[in-house]
Amino acid sequence: MTEAERQVGQRLLIDVRIDVGQCDATVTDRIEDTVDYGEVCEAIYLVAQQRSYKTLERLCSAVADRLLDRYDVQGVWVKAAKPEPPLPLPVSEVSVEVWREAE
């Protein structure tokens, strides 16, 4: 992000895909047997608010790492997009994607 974006603020859109593997919910259909996406959204919000990130790459990595640390999942894909970035060209969006697998 540019200095102006940091001062004024920049709207970001975050997409997340979580590979839950063969979790119990695939059989039980119970929410408590899988990842609660409400909790995931709160975790993402906290990561984004804890500090200022200069790059979308670092933000995506921080979100992916937090989700892998917090949940028993096989992998996490995170995409951060800036709609209508401040560029001298007619660009509708720029984005970065990060994929992390559990170790």
Detailed description of the structure:
There is one protein chain. This protein has four helices and three strands; from the N terminus they run αβαααββ. The mean pLDDT is 89. Helix 3 packs across helix 4. It has a single domain, classed as GTP Cyclohydrolase I, domain 2 (2-Layer Sandwich). It is an alpha+beta fold and 103 residues long.
Query: Would you identify the regions where 5 or more consecutive residues have pLDDT less than 50?
Result: none
**Strand ordering within the main sheet:** 1-2-3
Instruction: Work out the strand percent.
Output: 15-25%
The end-to-end span amounts to 31 Å
Structure, briefly:
The chain is of the alpha+beta class and 103 residues long. The protein contains four helices and three strands; from the N terminus they run αβαααββ.
